[in-house]
Design a protein that fits this description.
Helices cover 33% and strands 25% of the residues. It is built from eight helices and ten strands. Helix 2 runs parallel beside helix 4. 41% of the residues are buried.
Length: 251
């Protein structure tokens, strides 16, 4: 288990500042929710962590050291929003997961590890030869999670991983995230615009607006007694008077 820390991080594109002096920590073995509207900068911060967006100022640290963004072994793995574009349609799901495994495994070892990872995300290992086109969105997102775990990451970054899924499928994927975090002790930055989702999976939440963290703290405290007007606005937009959790049935 490792700590991911954003230390006064700024991301700018020319004269436009997408992330403005953000400091945020993901403690070892914890899920931290990052919530905000579209365009708030939360996905840009995530992309900066994995080297997909330029860091203009500050630093991103893993266990106190700068996060390496080059090389085959990357300690941060990201699961993206769209399960339909995150997997290569020309590869089987087994090949996609195997591609992310560390080097040095024999063919049999790789096959066994792919089977283990598919079982971990509740997919039949016998479907390893299937291509993504034959899977549902929820199944593809499970493959994406398996692929992220294949690299044995120190921290997983999940960027809006349920927003492109049908409501009927979202709960099962969220239950899987909770299960994986509990069983593997994952450190995870979980990004969403949905406060109900964040309440369900995260022990700590940070609220982002216009590239700035406006409020953060334990999830129960922030969502039951918000101190910032923007947090109150987000809560007011949640349908119903209470935030309802997804079903806790086994995925």
């Amino acid at each position: 288990m490792s700590e991911l820390r954003f230390d006064d991080v700024t991301v700018a594109y020319g004269h436009v500042t997408a992330v403005d002096h953000v400091s945020l920590s993901v403690p070892p073995g914890q899920v931290v929710g990052l919530v905000g509207e579209s365009g708030s900068g939360k996905s840009t911060l995530a992309r900066a962590a994995v080297g997909l967006a330029p860091v203009s100022g500050g630093q991103i640290l893993l266990d106190g050291r700068p996060v390496p963004t080059r090389g085959r072994r990357r300690p941060l793995q990201m699961v993206f929003q769209d399960p339909y574009s995150s997997l290569d349609p020309r590869m089987t799901i087994g090949e996609s997961v195997a591609e992310a495994l560390p080097p040095g495994h024999s063919r049999e070892q790789r096959r066994a590890e792919v089977a283990r990872l598919l079982e971990l995300v509740h997919l039949d290992p016998g479907r390893a030869a299937v291509r993504p086109a034959l899977l549902s969105g929820g199944q593809r997102q499970r493959v994406a999670l398996a692929r992220a775990l294949a690299g044995d990451p120190k921290v997983v970054i999940a960027d809006e991983i349920t927003s492109a899924l049908d409501v009927s499928i979202q709960g099962a994927v969220l239950n899987l995230v909770r299960e994986l975090q509990r069983e593997l002790g994952l450190s995870m930055l979980f990004i969403s615009h949905n406060l109900a989702v964040v309440r369900y999976v995260a022990s700590h939440v940070a609220v982002m607006r216009a590239g700035v963290i406006v409020e953060e703290g334990p999830t129960d405290r922030v969502l039951s007694d918000p101190q910032h007007d923007y947090t109150r606005e987000l809560l007011a937009a949640v349908p119903g008077s209470h935030t309802r959790e997804p079903s806790r049935r086994t995925p």
